[in-house]
Specification:
By secondary structure, this protein is α/β, with parallel strands linked by helices. Helices cover about 25% and strands about 15% of the residues. Helix 12 (about 415-430) runs antiparallel to helix 13 (about 440-460). About 40% of the residues are buried.
């Protein structure tokens, strides 16, 4: 069955909608910003506020039959939920009426009601009154019975209480964001600035010696590497893609700031992410390193593509963290069906493929849950031709390990394993004097131990070489013939809804859930 396609046009009753949103509950310490009484109420008993909001989300999402991911912390909320168009609109309507918690708000009495019944708080008290609700629609399709149907964009519903909705390891306090964050640019302002740098009239002013000199720009993509690989903004001055901090988790952005702050201090920094939430903290982290001229795209790539589509400076695909996988600049779905293996075609304008196969560098941008790095388990771009020739996949960060780091050792004999061990030891030794490599060296040490144990088992006859062992999926460990890619993140097969009350970010396996 053909997959549903994303569209911004008028939708039928059978259409599915998805909404992205976030809200930080920051109390500004700036004298120019009046205190927000609603947020003050939240912080009077933040722990209780979080639990009440969690219960509220559980109730309305269940009642409206929504699926998706909602992260709740004392600092705010970050969500992506999907369902029928009517139910998503009802969800937004309910959120706009949310006043929390009623027990902590002062009683508002109706003067005309002698029984002094509580009057509902005004819209000005709503916790989510200033949220930018980014809504898009997925068209329904005729199934084999001739009825309209659309596949759920998420396998289930997860509502999690976490320490931070965007994890920095506690480096950025939410109350610092209004004071320290970068300058917010609307999609129009962001585009206008890039256009100015791209124009012939201003191009020569970047390096001239007059008062009209324009500072060189530095475009920074604050998303994960696999997001950046399939789509990114292009620097109009150089024609090169935006800077990629090479993150697998957002908390590593501080390391990028430490390494590149000196190079960025004299530049106009323009940063962006999917919906804006990561930029709020990323700009704070960079400015604290002495980079003052920092601006960020308000509403993220999502709002920019709505406004400029294929005519803008964003090239490639925008990763979505749901079963659409990615959307083109014209806001149509790109995704590949897990049922029939066929990429969805689009009658809308084509787009420029900016992704490349990690092995042969051929143009390729189809991500799949069955193709992940055997070391870090991040999604990897591997073209069809290269897939058949590789035992396991390695991302660009771990390309130097592809001859010696394997999760499944049953196909190797003792001699091959000894060669792997020597290479692993050399890599580990080369990192000894480098800063911030403790975790990497630890991972290598674990792999060396694993190889040594396998060699010992082969030498003692406890195990034998399995030359014909099937290639297995790194995520679920199942053979490729069994694993169909539904073991990674949003590709997982549908299951019953679950509501998780996590005391902090789950350790171990990362879930890649809905950062915007």
């Amino acid at each position: 069955m053909k997959e549903a396609s994303l569209t911004s046009s008028t939708s039928s009753e059978s259409d599915q909608a998805v909404v992205l949103f976030y809200q930080y509950f920051a109390l500004s310490s700036s004298s120019s910003s009046p205190p927000d009484q609603t947020f003050e109420t939240w912080w009077k008993d933040a722990k209780r506020s979080v639990e009440t909001l969690h219960d509220h989300q559980q109730r309305i999402c269940t009642d409206l039959n929504l699926t998706g991911r909602v992260l709740i912390a004392e600092e705010g909320i970050n969500g992506t939920v999907a369902g029928s168009r009517d139910n998503v609109e009802a969800y937004i309507h309910e959120m706009k009426k949310y006043h929390h918690p009623q027990e902590l708000l002062s009683n508002r009495l109706d003067d005309n009601n002698k029984e002094a019944k509580r009057q509902r708080p005004s819209d000005g008290d709503c916790l989510f009154r200033n949220v930018d609700w980014k809504t898009s629609f997925v068209k329904g399709n005729k199934n084999v019975s001739g009825n309209d149907s659309v596949k759920p964009l998420f396998p289930d519903l997860k509502i999690c209480i976490v320490k931070e909705i965007v994890s920095t390891g506690g480096l950025v306090d939410v109350h610092d964001i209004p004071v320290e964050t970068g300058r917010h640019l609307s999609p129009e302002e962001f585009h206008e600035m890039l256009t100015a740098y791209a124009s012939e009239e201003n191009h020569g002013k970047v390096n001239d010696n007059t008062d009209n000199k324009l500072p060189p720009i530095a475009l920074i993509d604050v998303r994960n590497t696999f997001e950046h690989n399939i789509g990114h903004f292009v620097n109009p001055q150089t024609g090169e893609k935006a800077l990629n901090p090479e993150m697998t988790t957002f908390s590593s952005f501080d390391k990028f700031c430490q390494q590149h702050a000196d190079d960025l201090k004299d530049k106009q920094v323009l940063m962006y992410c999917t919906g804006g939430i990561r930029c709020e903290k990323a700009s704070v982290m960079l400015k604290r390193k002495g980079v003052n001229n920092v601006a960020q795209l308000s509403g993220g790539i999502h709002r920019y593509l709505e406004r400029y589509g294929k005519d803008g400076f964003f090239k490639g695909l925008n990763f979505t963290f749901d079963k659409r996988v990615a959307i083109k600049p014209d806001m149509s779905s790109q995704r590949t069906s897990l049922d029939d293996g066929k990429s969805e075609s689009s009658s809308k304008a084509e787009y420029e493929v900016v992704g490349t196969c990690v092995e042969c560098t051929a143009p390729f941008d189809e991500l799949d849950g069955s193709r992940v790095c055997t070391v870090c388990r991040d999604l990897v771009l591997v073209c069809c031709d290269c897939q058949s020739s590789l035992l396991e996949y390695h991302c660009s960060r771990h390309a130097a390990w592809k001859d010696c780091y394997f999760s499944f050792l049953e196909v190797f004999d003792s001699e091959q394993l000894c060669e792997q061990k020597l290479k692993l030891e050399k890599i580990r030794e080369s990192l000894e004097l480098l800063p911030n490599t403790k975790n990497t060296r630890r991972a290598l040490a674990r792999q060396i131990d694993k190889v040594e144990q396998r060699i010992s088992e082969l030498d003692t006859g406890k195990v034998t070489v399995q030359n014909n062992a099937p290639r297995r999926c790194r995520s679920c460990l199942e053979p490729n013939g069994v694993c169909d890619g539904r073991c990674w993140g949003f590709w997982k097969a549908s299951s019953s809804s679950s509501f998780t009350l996590d005391k902090g970010i789950q350790k171990g396996r990362r879930s890649h859930q809905c950062p915007l």
